[in-house]
Amino acid sequence: MRAERDGWLNLGGDQWIKNDPSYVQFNKKSTVDSSIVGKRVVSKVNNLRFYDAPSWQVS
């Protein structure tokens, strides 16, 4: 996770997901394990939508 803004999580680049606890588990930590820095998230979920901006509106 690269950034958090207005209830959205940035997975890197222009990939955003809504931080909704009904389907996302995100535990914010003050420090990051250096072994995962720069790694990307691989989605193994059917029909998961990625957004290029933190908005429900089509961009």
Plain-language structure description:
The chain is mainly β and 59 residues long. It has one domain. The protein is built from no helices and three strands. A hairpin with a 2-residue loop joins strand 1 and strand 2 (8-12).
Give the end-to-end Cα distance, rounded to a whole number of Å: 21 Å
**Which parts are unreliable, with pLDDT below 50 for 5 consecutive residues or more?**
none
Mean pLDDT: 75
Strand content: 15-25%
Q: State the domain count.
A: 1
Please provide the count of β strands.
3
What count of helical segments does DSSP give?
0
Query: In percent, how helical is the residue content?
Result: under 10%
Spatial strand sequence of the major β-sheet? 1-2-3
The outline comes out as globular
What would you report as the Rg, rounded to the nearest angstrom? 12 Å
Largest sheet: 3 strands, antiparallel
Class inferred from helices and paired strands = mainly beta
H/E series = EEE
Short description:
By secondary structure, this protein is mostly beta strands.
Characteristics:
59 residues; mainly beta; 3 strands; globular
Secondary-structure blueprint:
Elements: E1 3-5, E2 8-12, E3 15-18
Antiparallel strand pairs: 1-2, 2-3
